[in-house]
Amino acid sequence: MSQATFHAPRRKRKVYETYESPFPIPLSHDCHMKDFRICQAEIINNYVIVRRLEDIELLYGKGYFGKGILSRSRPEYSIAQNELRVRWKGCKMNLPIISSKKYQHHVEWAKGLLEAQGLDTCSINKILGDYTKPINLPEDKDETTDSRDHKPDLESDSADAAGEENKVLEGDPVYDPLAKYDSEEMETQDKCIEPDQEVLEKMHCHIHDDLIIHCGCKPERQTVKTEATVTSVNDGGEYEYVLVEELDSGPEAEDLEEERGEMQKKRLVCRMNPFRIFEYLQLSHEEAFFLVYALGCLSVTYKKEPLPIQKLWDLLRAAQQNFPTSYMAYQHFRSKGWVPKVGLKYGTDLLLYRKGPPFYHASYSVIVELVDEYFEGSPLRPLTWRSLSGLNRTTMNVSKELLICYLIKPSGFTEMDMKSPVCIRKFKVQASVCAQCR
Prior knowledge:
Layout: E1 39-44, E2 47-50, H1 53-61, E3 67-68, H2 82-87, E4 97-99, H3 100-116, H4 121-131, H5 159-169, H6 179-182, H7 184-188, E5 191-193, H8 197-202, E6 204-205, E7 210-211, H9 212-215, E8 222-224, H10 227-230, E9 241-247, H11 254-260, E10 266-272, E11 281-283, H12 285-294, E12 298-302, E13 305-306, H13 309-319, H14 323-335, E14 338-342, E15 350-354, E16 364-371, H15 385-397, E17 401-408, E18 428-433
Parallel strand pairs: 1-12, 4-9, 16-17
Antiparallel strand pairs: 1-2, 2-11, 3-11, 5-8, 6-7, 9-10, 12-13, 14-15, 15-16, 17-18
């Protein structure tokens, strides 16, 4: 019988960030800590999603909770194409640079969204025409540059500066082709309908609690909004301005350039992005409940209603069959200083990282089992010697160790006790490394 050995965690060769301490835990409700605040999340189709940027940065930076839905791990997706930023090193505008092909994809997505809303082709073309209209900025007027003249530059865009740039451009009729839709002039151009005499006699005054014909107040005009004022392609709030790399002869000549293999003169044109893609943070069920139950720094809503702890426990149990056991193991290893992540890609329940995925490779693959005081009971994951040997070999091939986590339930414990998170306190946890199968 072989003896299990413990190995030091393998540090990654390239680390691009500094380590921040995990979430501080207040010792009492009266304790006010500057780094501690309640983040907001919501359940959508059984997924727990965090939308606010400041909450995303806090949750991922203070313990590496969740992952970006558009990124491998850290939520850092950007529309900008780095290779184009390298090519346009001398560009003074601090805005994302994308190709004309990528921009056309966003236009087509926006067109499909408007078609799904039932708008006719004429209205769609008018709206997209306003969104995609070139914006002549003072910094890049009459600017036509050969892309071959630029040398590589690895500096990336500054998100804060780009955001400030967008806010300056928005609402300015000179640079914002949609400013007319939000201006006061547009409101005065709306059709106003004067109420007829029959309607006027039945109209009630909320100020004097009487009919308008008795109190003498003037009725409010009923405004009929035009289609342009109520229709919007961009549901994300603020606009996003991008620099589109286009050929001097037009974007349609890009395919011809690829066929000929020639480099032609290109220019950057500032346009609005008609279809914005937002990066959200997706939390696993265990992470979400840990932040709510153990740390108290997250509030989860479902259908715009905040969920109490018991209701959240019920929803997560219904969505994930093994949630109670996987959460108990998650909370145990989190309390020991590990950063647990889902171990599905290696056929296990959890992966354990020291400090976090950016610094170390996972040290252990964890299998969770529920047993009684005599280490007996129906296994959650029935394993034969052959399947266990295969799983152990898979774990060894990726330089990890297989760890079996036993959740020991007390005597007299029933399935009814699992319906409340109070059961977490009754369990004992014992973890052991699986020896190599010979």
